[in-house]
Amino acid sequence: MKSKVLAKKDLLKFINKLIKEYDVFAPVKKEEGIVFSKIDKTDDMCLSYSNTKNSVKEFLLPQSEKLFRFAKKENTNEITDLKEKKRRSLLFGVRPCDGKAIAMLDKVFLENIPDAYYKRRRKNTLIIGMACDTPLQTCFCTSVEGGPFSIEGLDALFVELKENYFIIPVTKQCEKLFVHLDNASQEDIKEAEKLKKNAEKRLKPVFEIKDIKEKLDGAFDNPIWEEIHEKCIKCGICTYLCPACHCFDIQDETVGEEGCRVRNWDSCMFPKFTMHASSHNPRATQKERWRQRIMHKFNYLRENTGMYGCVGCGRCVEYCPVNLDIRKVIRDILESK
Amino acid sequence: MNNPYLPIPMIIKNITDETTVKDIKTFELAFLNKEDEKNFSYLPGQFAEISILGSGEAPIGIASSPTEKEILKFTVKWYEKGVVTNALHNLFVGDKIGIRGPFGNSFESKNIKNKSVVVIGGGFAFTTLRSLTTYMIHSHNRNKFENITIIYGARSPDDLIYKKELKEWAERDDIKLYVTVDKGDKDWKGREGFVPTVVEEVAPSAQEASAIICGPPIMIKFTIPKLVELGFSPENILNSLEMRMKCGIGKCGRCNIGNKYVCKDGPIFSLAELNDLPKEY
Amino acid sequence: MKTKKIQDIARKLLKEKKVDVVIGFEKGTLPSSATPCFIRNPDEVDRLIWNSFCGNNLANYLPKRKDKIGIVAKGCDSRSIVVLIQENQIKREQLYIIGIPCDGMTDKNNVLHDYCLICEHKNPVIYDVLVGEKVKENKAQRHPEGLRDTKWQKIEDFEKKSSSDKWKYLESELSKCIRCNACRNACPTCYCKECFIDQEKPRWVGTTNNLSDIIFFHLGRIFHQAGRCTDCGACVRACPMNIDLRQFTQKITKDGETLFDYETGLDIDVKPPFATFKEDDSEDFIK
Amino acid sequence: MNKNSKFRAKIRQPKIIAFLCNWCSYAGADLAGISRLQYPPNVRVIRVPCSGRMNPLYIIRALQHGVDGVLVSGCHPGDCHYITGNYYARRKFAIINSLLQYVGIEKERVHFSWVSASEGGKFAEVIKQVTEDVKKLGPAKKLVKKI
Fold it and tell me: How does pLDDT run across A270-323, given as a tens digit for each residue?
């Protein structure tokens, strides 16, 4: 597929056209910060963002998703499967780190036994990325096999040049969006290449990812776990804002005679996450939970899917109320005996 | 669309109290749709998510054997904190519920055929072992196994579950059954003593044999060394684990032990496999 | 200066084995940040620091601990410690409180937090050793009606709004909530072994991000803070979605002060407002 | 649900939950019944051992699950069967009442009263007044949980 260009002044027109056909989600400036949200008009969109506060996973794996409805009438268990949404969705302005997280979620939810709900949403969603040229202090995508211009998980990637957007189409599905656009010139390609190099240069890896898997294999009983968790306050910020964390809980919600089975995000940081009905808890303290979080992201997922469960977006680093920095944790583990 | 989250509608055909305190009940469920019944093929050791609308789901081992047609049996203990087990214990014959499954691997997946089998169970963890035993002694399958030894222990005679079947099995001469209780009552004429001691005593031959062990952690802890002493290799000591599970298909992320998911890669693990996994269960 | 003193005190405490652990602050991984740390080895006390980013309320780490603890405490931390002692979550004998008069903490842009602006207890109310000189307290002037004007201005303004405006504000704020529970977990006086939102039998609050449930959670939590909240700002600082929780928690504090004449966390020996009563408590709202 | 709300829209009969203490207000309600005092039938009673047993979150929970008004009633101060239960309760009620009004729940949705076992008349009066107040407000919309 050929790279394309779109003049910056034509972007809003382009998005407006998309809004007619798709439910478009893009970064929007709100009171709580810049968040990914549905836009009805291009005015809502805010493209001067480093990264959004929430990740785009909530459009594929919503925080609460109804699995089906049921009526709690006497002696029945009628259930109604929920209907598919007709309009397709399009996520515009996804950062490459979030894109990579989607690639990881795809492995978990689409392989082996596919997850019907995720699959339905995923098939219905186009993801257009926006390359990242102003990384934050908290960013570390290059440390976890990602990059500010990574195309993994995306259907297309926009790169902001001086006057144009340079567009790299990745999958067939999005090709038709760009057919009417001009092909990129050699100069554009060069300019984009240069931006990419510069951005990557600014993001020196903060740890050697190659060593971490091997280290973790033998680190289950490492005394370092005793210390790492100590200041953790057991909240769910890190896991809820994480674009790759995908653990969920299934619960029934009822009001009066009606109810629905829902699945909600859950967090390995919560004490009840693994609690048995018999009150036995295999991960009884925050030590085990932190070990699980690190092991799951950097060891188990790597082994099971070939990808890491961390994409280096830095949200957990930025928003942790006690500054429990995952980068430091990893470095400490690497340095430990 | 093939949706693994939709429960299969079932109806409760029979409820049996296993103990006099009535905290353990066996539910016999029948399929409401013939189609579902045809599609539901399982083997001993597998589990299903029991789904009660309004309360939620809980993973329970299937206690019936595939050789028993038309019904599925689940034996469920009441726990004070268990939302679903509580709701289940409040149901009556004729109530409709749902199940999802079957999930997990089976005992057979661990290469137990054409060998002797030693089944060691404790307390109410005997459920999937009942499934296995019933399966093995069925006339179609009995010749696929060599000697079958069953060792089953509980705290008191009343805590033994499947009392009727134990009686039937005791009368068979193609299996050896040893039932023991920690402490008998005045009517108890059988064995007294802990399971590990009985294992040592009856010393089943480890030659070409698999040991399948399922029970409270303390029993497992003391029985495994005995089995190793007897010469059972770690590959032939099988253990069924339990974990909090929600999805049953390896997505929801809570039942993993190391990189293995109990719902998908288990619940049956050999001791050899467990030795390679972190001790987090 | 203070950093050095804290280090010296901590070193002495640990060397003399007066405490098992010192809870203080160390340099954070981001610029303009400090992070809680646990020091057990006297050789490591050099990690301890003190600056204007030491905003976390360290009392949060105390409930149900069994060891002997040296703890660095600002004014608000010390008040939370008092609450925890009052409510038997920690024993006074377990604690060696390194009190630090506080000039207010700043956010990462070096701006004083707004709860620090109206703070009336900059000096620790309870301590074993004080690091540095006491600072001048900024007691708000008593209003003729008995309310403190500057302190409660925001609350009184809100009280005057119509119910629908109030509700609209509540909804708009709380609809940002992602139910990460950070407000609860960052709060030193939210120490319940099992929070009512985690209870499953019966389930108090639904598990989804249904707005009604979110409001229930926050109202419930705020209500539970009556007589406990010291307005330390831990919840708003922790909230990743910048929810204005203090608009509601302050109301509880104000009611505690105006209805029961009780200011939180000043005296270990005074009973918290819900653990006592007066025969002439106001009851004009009761028919 | 739908059927229910249509029904409610037509006749506008509010649903009110009354939490009555076992020793005074519940007996007061009994007395009102025995004395054949007329009062509106909109109230569903939940008996609690003492007003001190009232977890104030019950009020929020009731509003969340579709009642239009709540009444909490106990013994007069000094008359508590458990000596001081209602004194403690009074403090909790003061705070929750003030908090609910502060966040925008109308004052007339949530009521508190002291009704003794001998005050059948007062009980009928309180119910009448509460029902009227709640009727004026119309069906509760805030806090109502929909799924």
Answer: 999 999 888 889 999 999 999 999 999 999 999 999 999 999 999 999 999 999
Question: Which other chains touch chain C, taking contact as 3+ CB pairs less than 8 Å apart?
Answer: A, B, D
Could you read off the pLDDT of A211-262 as tens digits, one per residue? 888 889 888 988 999 999 999 999 999 999 999 999 999 999 988 888 899 9
Helix (H) / strand (E) element for C39: namely strand C34-39
Structural domain range at position D68: 13-34+50-116
B abuts C (3+ Cβ pairs < 8 Å): yes
Instruction: Report the neighbours of D using a cutoff of 3 or more CB pairs below 8 angstroms.
Output: A, C
Mean pLDDT of A132-154: 91
With respect to residue D22, please indicate whether it lies within any of the assigned structural domains: yes
Q: What is the pTM of this model?
A: 0.93
Confidence of residue D1 (pLDDT cuts 50, 70, 90): very low
Are A230 and C38 an interchain contact pair (Cβ–Cβ within 8 Å)?
A: yes
Choose among A282, A303, A304: nearest Cβ to B281. Answer: A282
ipTM of predicted assembly, 2 dp: 0.92
Domains of chain B: 8-103 (2.40.30.10), 108-240 (3.40.50.80)
Nearest to C14 by CA among C92, C95, C90, C70: C70
In this structure, is residue D65 part of a structural domain? yes
Residue C253: CA count within 13 A, CB half-sphere: 23
In a domain, D39, yes or no: no
Q: How many domains does chain D have?
A: 1
Strands A156-160 and A125-130: parallel
A303 and chain B: CB distance < 8 Å anywhere?
yes
Backbone angles phi, psi at B62, to 5 degrees: -80, 125
Distance (Å, whole) CA A219 – CA D52: 53
Alpha helices (H) along chain B: 34-39, 83-89, 127-137, 163-171, 195-202, 217-230, 271-276
- Asked if B5 lies within 8 A of A247 by C-beta distance, the reply is no
